[in-house]
Sequence to fold (322 residues):
Amino acid sequence: MWPEEAAAIQQSGRALTELRSVGPFTAHFIAEWLRNRPDPPVPPPLRDGFLTYAYARTVLDAHPEWREAARADHQMHTDETDGSSTIEEMAAAATEVGRERIAVTDHSKSLRITNGMDEARLQAQGEHIAAVNARGSGPLILRSIEMDLTPEGAGDMDPRALAGLDLVLGAFHSKLRLRDDQTERYFRGLDNPDIQVLAHPRGRIYNFRSGLSCDWQRVARRAAETGTALEIDAYPDRQDLDVERLRIVAAEGAWISIGTDAHTPAELVFLDIGIAAAILAGVQRTRVLNLLSARDLAERVGLVRATKKHDAIRGSRTDRSD
Ligand SMILES: [Zn+2]
Fold:
């Protein structure tokens, strides 16, 4: 999570103790490693495929045309559920790191461990956001939610409560350790008519859980067909989707949404990790929701809603004729 590589700090003659959590003892060991340059260790699968924040920043520096993507952050939490801070505090911190648009995506009711919201609380939060937006001093705040999806792809909120939101994320939070192929689960999630983004699709966590497996090419194709965006959750411990799978998504032309999943104001800076992943994977800029204007995003969300509704009606007609 350091903003610069230790080697770069040392090269410029500064003290390694400038780095967070590094005291003289650790600085001594890092200096030793930098002197002796042992072969970098091969990370075990649970720690493989993660970018450092320092490296992500260098990728962005080399691709300034992507800087605009940092204007929007499409996932964060507040103290309404399991975040540390108020909407106002997150908005102020987001402005400081250059965001012009943020989506407040607190959890839905069945995720009790996070104090998930029911429809009434979601409605009240939406009214509060409208009042904050009306002041016009901070970033545009999107009324959003990270809705829990069952393994069957069903949401836990009244679709009428979701219809008025600016962006709806859906995410799997249970049965994430199953080892068999979950392609069908992803299809059901992507087909859910009420969501426009599938958040942290793999469900992996650094050094803790490897996440679900599936046929990513078919899943990416289904995402493209349904219009549902796949998320790059830029939280350092998640980085989900990762560069390797994003290459497949890019080839299939599915949409991407990038969010920090920040639970504190300090975590908002990590958006760079998600943008860097998109760059490294060759994602097309025209397929990134963060790069749309607020107006074009609203249009896009409306289109996905209409398309899915239409497909759902068609689907049920087919079922009846069977
Ligand atoms: Zn989540």
